[in-house]
Design goal:
The protein is mainly alpha-helical and 270 residues long. Helices cover 67% and strands 1% of the residues. It is built from 13 helices and two strands; from the N terminus they run H-E-H-H-E-H-H-H-H-H-H-H-H-H-H. The chain has helices at 5-25, 37-42, 48-52, 58-77, 79-82, 85-92, 98-124, 134-158, 164-178, 186-191, 200-203, 206-220, 239-263; strands at 31-32, 55-56. It has a two-stranded antiparallel sheet with strand order 1-2. Helix 4 (58-77) packs across helix 8. The longest helix is centred in the middle third of the chain and has 27 residues, at 98-124. The radius of gyration is 21 Å and the shape is elongated.
Amino acid sequence: VYRTWSTFIFDQLLHLFCGALVSIATQRFAYVAAQPKEVCDIAPVSLRAFCEDPQDEIRTAAMFIILGAMFAGTSVGSSTFGRERVVYFRDTSTGMRTFPYFLAKIVIDLPRIIVGGVMYAFALILFFPHRQDFVFILLVIEFMYFAAFAMGYHLSIAFKPNHVPLVSTGVSLLWALVMSGVMPTLTDVYTSPTYTPVRWLWSVSAPRYAIEAFWIKEVGAYPFEKPVTAPYEYDWDNFDKDLKAMFLIGVGWMGVAFLGLKLFDRSKHK
């Protein structure tokens, strides 16, 4: 990648473009807390439902933001091993060890993850009216990029190169929309017997933790009194735990990708 600067620059333009599009789409999303009872009592009947309950659009905004980061991360990350599958199998057949090769690829990709996350985050705040400090947005995006790149590694190893773009799109939609904890909600997932067989999937979903982390800091920065107990099965003190969970999930996907290098297409090692 670094031998051809045009490729690296194109990657950064992809991150900027994705961040800018999401920024435009979320520029009117906001949070309004529940109003005092005295205000609701004199409000028209048709507006009391909006008065008594918080008007929360931040979770939806966070879902779009994380979806964009997921899509950009998996798209770029899938090129790391996908471009060199033939070279890898040729070199391993001559004695090259898999682990040093895999570790070197991750180290080389770290600047791409960091710079890509910065580009996306800066583009995001162009129009999105954030209240939280930019550093918190950047942390969430960077950890999400780390997990998304790792997932992209696995996809590029598990699928043929011509299938990877479509699969990456589907996987991004699956994890960032269905497994986000927004719809279905975490309350539904944890309480409904329908989700019992697959409930564990939400525990290994990086977007689910990214959205919670983003929501905690964004809503907490609004000049409203916060409820003692956070809604949506969230916790006001979970920001650090969410970042840790995203990191561990990313490491887990890297482990799956490493096993894929060792096990997939074993016939090519001969």
